[in-house]
Amino acid sequence: MLSAHELACERGERLLFRDLGFELERGEALLVRGGNGRGKTSLLRILCGLSAPVAGVVRWRGEPISEAHEQYGREMAYLGHANGIKDDLTPVENLRLAAALGGRELDVTTATAALEQVGLSRCLDFPARVLSFGQRRRVALAGLLTAGALLWILDEPLTGLDVDGVAMVEQMIRDHVVAGGLAIMTTHQPLALDGLTPKTLSVGD
Questions:
Q1: Would the N or C end of the chain have less CB density within 10 A of its end CB?
Q2: CB burial string 102-116: b at 16+ within 10 A, e below
Q3: Using alpha carbons only, what angle is made at residue 93 by residues 78 and 147, rounded to the nearest 5 degrees?
Q4: pLDDT digit string, tens, across residues 144-171
């Protein structure tokens, strides 16, 4: 489904990695490892199509993502360091806006159900600016549930979450992959995926 072939990435004049590759099928997860500044986030941005590699190619369903841009955009969801939340909008409004920007319709009932699933039932009518960082992170995570994406690309998804929030994300990832989805993630924290063992990829070694 998703493959990377001989990827190379530079930051400024510094080579972060080269000759990097992997293959990922439905029902599989990939954990990207590496120290700070080694290129983990740069790799994820390449996989999302947000930046281009110096060399190599990323393929989705056998096609370069640069050529399958529209389909790939519909089937991939990215959660980066920034939550992408608008301060003046409520969590429900944020989810509906994100869906609209992606060319999808999202009704209030479905958005509300996703937010309740991530533990935000008491915050539905609050503007995002009054939410804590952890609560804003949960809004972004609810966006994964409503995106309908086959591939999740997650850069440090556990950041800012308490113990219950970490357990929730672990269960979300496991459920997504067990249901036939794909997940790629970086994290500095241990992941407990209840019997699911991700593939691993080291960056910048």
A1: C
A2: beeebeeebbbebbe
A3: 30
A4: 999 989 999 999 998 888 999 999 999 9
3-class DSSP state of 23: strand
Report which of 72, 4, 2, 11 is spatially closest to residue 39, judged by C-alpha positions: 11
- Residue pair 91/128 in contact by the 8 Å Cβ criterion: yes
Q: How many CA atoms lie less than 13 Å away from 66 in the CB half-sphere?
A: 8
CB atoms within 10 A of CB 47: 25
Cβ-in-10-Å burial (0-12, 13-18, 19+) of 134 comes to middle
In Å, how far from its chain's centre is CA 7? 20
User: Does 22 have pLDDT greater than 80?
Assistant: yes
